[in-house]
Amino acid sequence: MITPYADHVKEKSQTRRVLRNLRKLAPEGDGRASSLLLEELGKLEQLEEVEGLEFGHIKVVASYTSYENEPSTQGFNSTLLSRGVQVLLPHLLEDNSLEWVDSETGKNFGITGISLAQIVVVPALSVDESGMRIGQGGGSYDRALKLNSGWKVCLLHDGEIFEGKLPQEIHDQKVNAVVTPTKIIRFI
Questions:
Q1: What span, in angstroms and rounded, lies between the C-alpha atoms of 28 and 85?
Q2: 20 to 30 Å CA-CA from 172: which of 4, 66, 129, 136?
Q3: CA-CA distance, 186 to 65, in Å (whole number)?
C-alpha cells in the first residue's frame, strides 16, 4: 500500500528504527546468506535462461561491502572475483546518488555503471512478501535500481522478512528475490 507522503515519512522512519534495533541482535559478519546465493548462482549458470535473464555467462555483479550486522558480502565478493566476475561496488556521492567502481581496478563507471550488472545485490533492512525492500532511508538504491534491468536480490538474516506490507512511496523499487541463511524466496 502506497501511503500519503506525510504519513509515509513517519511510518517508514518508525519501521526503520525498529528494524535497525532488531538487526543489532544479528551476528556480525554472518556470511551464510551470501554462501547460499553463491550456491544458487552456480545452479543458475547451468541454465540457459531464468526470468528472461541469461545467466550462463555472468560477467558483472553489482554488490556492496557489508558492515556491522549486515549479512556479510566479503566472501561472496571474493568468490565472484576468483571466478573472473567483475564486481562493481557503490560509492555514495554528496547528493545521495551512487556511482559504481570496479572493486579490483578502481575504474569508475559513474552513476549509470549499475546498468552493466546482470545481478545486483542490494542492501536492505527488510523485504516484504511482495519484494518491496526498505533500506537505510537515503533513496540511493531506489534511484540506482531504476537504471538496471538485471536480477535484483537482497541478503537478509533469518527473521528479517517482513510479514505484511512495508510502507512505500511511488519511487520505491522492488527486488526479484531475497536470500537468508536458510531459504531463497523469488517474487513474481
A1: 26
A2: 66
A3: 23
C-alpha cell at 64: 556492496
| 184-186/151-155 β-pairing | unpaired
End-to-end Cα spacing for the chain? 17
Report yes or no on whether pTM surpasses 0.90. no
- Tell me the fold of 5-186: Rossmann fold (3.40.50)
Copy the grid coordinates of residue 126.
527488510
Are 114 and 88 in contact by the 8 Å Cβ rule? The answer is: yes
The string of pLDDT tens digits covering residues 92-115 is 999 999 999 999 999 999 999 999
Which cell numbers in the block locate residue 6?
A: 506525510
Question: In the chain, where are the structural domains located?
Answer: 5-186
